[in-house]
Design brief:
The protein is 42% helix and 0% strand. It has two helices and no strands. The chain starts with 20 loop residues before the first helix and ends with a helix.
């Protein structure tokens, strides 16, 4: 993989999105499940209403 140069006059800034406590807990549960079983945790699909909000 090569190096990507920034176009002149444009700065790429990577800013992490802050996670809520609920989301951090969910991620931790997924990781713990994977470590315990070696399988991906079955996830529920989000409804269109939740994705738009």
């Amino acid at each position: 993989m090569g190096h990507i140069k920034e176009p002149e006059g444009i700065d790429f800034i990577v800013d992490p999105t802050p996670l809520t406590k609920e989301y951090r807990k969910h991620i931790s549960d997924i990781i713990a499940y994977y470590k315990a079983t070696g399988r991906k945790m079955p996830l529920q699909k989000k409804s269109k209403k939740k994705l738009a909000a």
